[in-house]
Write a structure and sequence with these properties.
Number of strands: 16
Structural class: alpha+beta
Radius of gyration: 41 Å
Order of helices and strands: HEEEEEEEEEEEEEEEEHH
Number of helices: 3
Largest sheet: 5 strands, antiparallel
Length: 282
């Protein structure tokens, strides 16, 4: 007998237990992608594979619509389409009576399709303020969204939406800006950024149409001029009244004092009415 003949049977049994052989083999299940973010209503391709050389069964489990694109002994490729909600995908294979699986998470997002900027009022005098309101309808997830109001490339105001739900909602940001004459034209816009935080998607940006605003110094000059003229008009009326009363008193004594005060109140009321009419014309 050979020197190692007595060890032959134990070594063979140990080999069958510890190493791959003709008996049951260990196997793994792989899936790609393992985590994915998909725009609402779009599709994605999912690959399921296994290290088992001859799996008895395999496939993809999901509540979404799917279609088998291609397959071989150790892999299957599926198209999952019309992705409408956050869900999980499960790849599975059976080998030597044992089943293993792998799970991937799918997150749905609604990109900022529209960024609407509204400025009020449409005209403003120098030193006046404009209210900027930016709206982004039906965007999700809101906690990944950042809205920024801009003057040219300079940020004026920024808002995030932490703690919001995953359902699509309208995002709104408002801000008041003072328009100065020395500032020239104000190029105002709004930028929406959706940072999905996944390696397969970059930051999605959308910018509103720019709107130009500047203050109207001519309107301010007109208002000041009219105010001065109105003040001079009222002052002249009062002076004429006072001097007229003094002249009447010299001729009539104190007899016409009460009538004079009535005429004073009437003249004052007429002056106020004319002042309001001129302000409305301006």
């Amino acid at each position: 007998m050979a020197p190692f003949g007595c060890w032959g049977l134990p070594v063979a049994l140990l080999t069958l237990l510890c190493c791959p052989g003709s008996g049951e083999k260990a196997f793994e299940v792989s899936m790609w992608p393992e985590q994915v973010t998909v725009k609402h209503g779009e599709s994605l391709t999912v690959n399921c594979s296994t290290s088992c050389l001859q799996p008895q069964a395999g496939g993809l489990e999901t509540v979404l619509s799917k279609r088998l694109l291609a397959e071989a002994a150790q892999w299957k490729q599926f198209l999952v389409y019309n992705v409408s909600k956050d869900t999980a995908l499960l790849c599975y294979f059976s080998c030597f009576g044992e089943q293993k699986s792998k799970t991937a998470n799918v997150s749905v997002f609604y990109p900022p399709e529209q960024v609407l900027l509204h400025l009020q009022p449409t005209q403003v005098i120098c030193g006046g303020s404009i209210t900027m309101e930016c709206r982004v309808p039906a965007v999700a997830p809101l906690e990944k969204l950042t809205l920024t109001l801009l003057h040219g490339n300079k940020p004026l105001h920024q808002k995030t939406f932490e703690g919001a739900t995953a359902d699509p909602k309208e995002a709104i940001i408002t801000y008041n800006i003072t328009i100065q004459r020395k500032g020239g034209d104000y190029n105002l816009s709004c930028r929406a950024e959706l940072d999905l935080g996944s390696p397969d998607k970059s930051i999605i940006r959308k910018v509103s149409e720019s709107q130009i605003r500047s203050c109207d110094s001519t309107q301010m000059i007109i208002i000041i001029t009219v105010s001065v003229l109105l003040f001079l008009f009222v002052t002249s009326v009062l002076l004429c009244f006072v001097f007229g009363q003094r002249w009447h008193q010299r001729r009539q004594g104190t007899y016409g004092v009460q009538a004079a005060w009535r005429r004073l109140r009437q003249a004052y009321q007429v002056g106020k009415l004319r002042l309001k009419e001129l302000e409305q014309l301006v």
